[in-house]
Amino acid sequence: MERLRERVLIADGGMGTSLHTFDLDLDKDYWGLENCSEVLVLSRPDVVAAVHKSFFDAGSDCVETDTFGANKVVLAEFGLSERTFEINEKAAQIARGVADALSTPEWPRFVIGSIGPGTKLPSLGHTSYDVLEDSYAEQARGLIAGGVDLLLIETAQDILQVKAAVNGCKIARAEAGMDVPIFAQVTIETTGTMLVGTDIAAAATAIHALGVDGMGMNCATGPAEMSEHVRWLGENWPHLISVMPNAGLPMLVEGQTVYPLGPRELADWMLRYVEEDGVNLVGGCCGTTPEHIRALREAIGFDRRPRARSPEWVPAVSSLYSQVPLRQENAVLAVGERANANGSKKFRELLAAEDWDAMVGVARDQVKEGSHVLDVCTAYVGRPEVADMQEVVNRYRGQVTVPLMIDSTEVPVLEAALKLLGGKSIINSINFEDGEEKAERVLGFARKYGAAVVALTIDEEGMAKEVEQKLAIAHRLYDFAVKRYGLPASDLIYDPLTFTICTGVEEDRRHGINTLEAIERIRRELPECQIMLGLSNISFGLKPAARHVLNSVFLHHAQKRGLTAAIIHVAAIKPLHQIPPEHVEAAEDLIFDRRDKGFDPLLRFVELFKDVTVASAKKAAPATVEERLTQRIVDGDKQGLEDDLKAALEQYPPLEIINTFLLDGMKVVGELFGSGQMQLPFVLQSAETMKAAVAFLEPFMEKVEGEEKGILVLATVKGDVHDIGKNLVDIILTNNGYKVVNLGIKQPIDSIVQAACDCGAHAIGMSGLLVKSTVIMKENLEEMRRRGLDIPVLLGGAALTRRFVENDCRAAYGHPERVHYAKDAFEGLKLMEQIMAWDAARRAG
What we know:
Layout: H1 2-6, E1 9-10, H2 15-19, H3 40-43, H4 45-58, E2 62-64, H5 72-76, H6 84-102, E3 110-115, H7 129-146, E4 150-156, H8 159-176, E5 182-186, H9 200-208, E6 214-218, H10 223-236, E7 240-244, E8 251-253, E9 256-258, H11 263-277, E10 281-282, H12 290-300, E11 316-318, E12 323-325, E13 333-336, H13 345-352, H14 356-369, E14 373-376, H15 385-399, E15 404-407, H16 411-418, E16 425-430, H17 437-449, E17 451-456, E18 458-459, E19 462-463, H18 467-484, E20 492-495, H19 511-525, E21 530-534, H20 544-561, E22 565-568, H21 581-591, H22 601-608, H23 625-635, H24 641-649, H25 654-674, H26 680-697, E23 711-716, H27 724-734, E24 739-742, H28 749-759, E25 763-767, H29 771-786, E26 793-796, H30 802-813, E27 819-821, H31 825-844
Parallel strand pairs: 1-10, 2-3, 3-4, 4-5, 5-6, 6-7, 7-10, 13-14, 13-22, 14-15, 15-16, 16-17, 17-20, 20-21, 21-22, 23-24, 23-25, 25-26, 26-27
Antiparallel strand pairs: 8-9, 11-12, 18-19
């Protein structure tokens, strides 16, 4: 580790590639075990040693043991499971012997223990977590006994398998009393994700929570296809980075697998990763030979220090598929509350009926509504909670795209669920009601399986209701979880508790005030931690319409004080601009206990909602159709939308309806979002309404006849799911004679550039709503510059400014005249006309 921090180290190339160059006999050398190269450490240690020496002679600082498939599960397929320890120890000793013989004080040589993915994917139910952890523990025991310097979990295709391998290594490490470093390398396919669908950010989130020393990538592709993911690691991953690609994408030539990338080409790519992305450990995987490593040594040199990086690690949780930051941009982390047998009658009934498919439907509905995380609780009297939790999580982990919060008071239930989840989840919860012993066990699970933890302000004296009491317990929880047990502060999620303010009892009147003040104090005194509320407790006892209003207003104030997350029914929360002003004022009077002589805010609030239903608790619709259309976009209200559009078409052409009334609504949405008055889920509702309106109007638009004017490749950038602006550009340009190749959302730069090349695009359009999307646009332009591209680019999105585009983005591309700011769809049309005119003039000239 010291050497890695001081200089870039070079590993070896492909073990299998090298073994195939020897004339080995299947029966004699492989003992009749086809594809079991690990047996060679017993039958032909001389051959294995020769491979190691060939790479050391070529310039490697370290070599990997011949143990890629030497775990108990894989070796059992060859009848060698009982020899797992022996094979790994022997393999490590062979490599150690060669390394020690060649080491000098100036040039020490190292041995990396290779731990491959095996043949079974636990996230797909091929095997269990416990079986894999035991299998990898035995492998690691042998590698450590044989003297490896590093344990490398490589070619990982399933993050749950990585968890089992890391924890197996930790078990063996603890038994040996040796702090051998652990690295984990994932394999990202040409699809842009791991085999089971995990993107690089989700993988890194889960792996970071396991406390490994380094992360990287290997196999599946050549270095070119890794570039976007390596850059992500360089910008985000806070520890050491390793990269070991194949010698290009494998090709089948005359029945043989061929790797096309030559030594010089591989070396050039790896030098770029070292110089630009700060990679610490480089080497090769399939198809790479000693010649590749020799070229790599020539390119890297002997004394190259790792490039200094300033990574920006974002505390987050993850599902099997994607990462969700714990702090949302201009919003709280919305934790869906309806997959909870305690709080949802519907979910409880489905659980009792064991209607698992319908329970998946409950989860998916919450995701559609905008929930970032789902709270899952299967506690139901008379039912087996562990088995029920396993049934639900087994389905949710593959069929639901967002992370899960495992909600149980029973420790076995928590562990059973965590063993099924490859992502980084949230445990709900710990407290000190029964002392510290149970909390200690739960924190142990959080550290082992990599999870964030909700911590309730409850101690041996009960639930804290006063501000100072809440603060005292919060500090005690911090000292316990962070200082004593090593939980990252950002993974500690306080629930300072709120209680109903709707009883009329004097001592309950200040619960809302106390909770808001506690949130503000915790945020100020423990700023790295998160703060969450079970929001609906504040309104317990009221009618549904009144609850929705009180919950929404209280959430608004809690977020202003520093709340970062809330357990809510997203569809029942409204932004303040959608609530009648007198209802907002009455809710605030109740929350802040604004009593006066002859005025009781609780009685006033109850009276106000005496005859109000959920359906009727809306502001009155504007009188004119023009105002109604604008307001529908702002409110995200589709009901009756088509009738209003039909009425508007009697007076206006469709493009004028879009450009004036509908876009006016989207401008208001942008202003509300930017000022913090509208949260992201409501922006999405507005976008869906806009999308529906434009789709209705599209058939009424007159398409420009004649030859295709030009081709635009259009995409929402990686990490952003917002597409209303992009789709509007598509419609406007298509209806004006242009061909638009609309790639959709979350598009990496590789896909955008490839599409532009495939269709001969005249321009590329990149869109995104979030602030982080503007950064990605700039990075995309930098990558396009590296690739020598000069195609015109249009940039659009709510967070973009003309100044950012014309200064930062133009500088990043290196062709300032080719980067344009499209403030809306019609500006995009105007810019495309300019681009095509310029193109025509260039061709004519």
